[in-house]
Sequence to fold (317 residues):
Amino acid sequence: MAKGVIKVHLDYLRSFCRVVKVKSITKASGELHLSQPALSQQINSLENKFRTKLLERSNRGVTLTRTGAKVYQYGQRMLFIMDTLEQEIRNIQDPTGLKVYISASPIPGNYLMPIKMLAFIDDYPKIKYYMVIKSVEQVIESVVDRTTNIGIISGPLSAQAKHRLQTEKIAIHLLGHDDIVAIARKGGHWSGNNYRVMDLRALPLVVPHKHSGTRIAIEHCLQETKMNLDKLNIVLEMDNCIAVTSAVKAGAGIGLIPRLAANDPDTEILDLPGLSIPLPFYLLVATRLTNNPLIKQLVSFLETGFLITGEAQGSAK
Fold:
């Protein structure tokens, strides 16, 4: 072995990543069917190999050190590559066992992907699909770490995010757009009134949390109109669009959500001339996977007629 090369046992790396994910050696040992001393020994072995501390242990669980975070980041990639290799070998041996892993942010994951995937499954019934809902940041991380095959997100991508994805050789496909609308409780205090965009400065607003794709789209467009979201009358920030809708129905104020999610019969979309907040949808996939026939076919399928604002408006009527 060349001088300076570190030889790592993949099973130990897998155990380490599991400990990090559940933030507990006790919990991880149960999931891995290992005794706590055996699991601790594996972690210690990794720390000895890298000659550095990877985890900080306390009564509240474990946290990553700076070097531990790097080992976890690259360990996830290594494990995914090995799992993918094993899966592709199984696919050659048994073509009926194909699997596709998809991570999606809440709006496309809850409102679009289930319908789109049903249509694709009809053409490929023997393939197994696994989809999880994550935040936009988590979807990007899972694609970069190669722990998912395809990522679907909503909201504008920052220049920094685009640069990182390009550096990591992740292809970015624009699938389409929805738009953000203002909703009010049907028959409530704010329904049936004529508002202007500038009226948003005084109206009580209910908006999604700061890290959601919808919120990023709202902030991006308001900045272009020289309106700062922080100076608006935000009465509630909610975790998701369902919570925003519930707060609006309870009379908290006017909600800002994607038109796609504005389908509750107890709410109405307000007519706000001049309010134009597009919500883009992106597909993220590692460039090396675009040569896989199944992934290539799925990407092509999702790019065709995914969603545009006009379609969203039609479906909301």
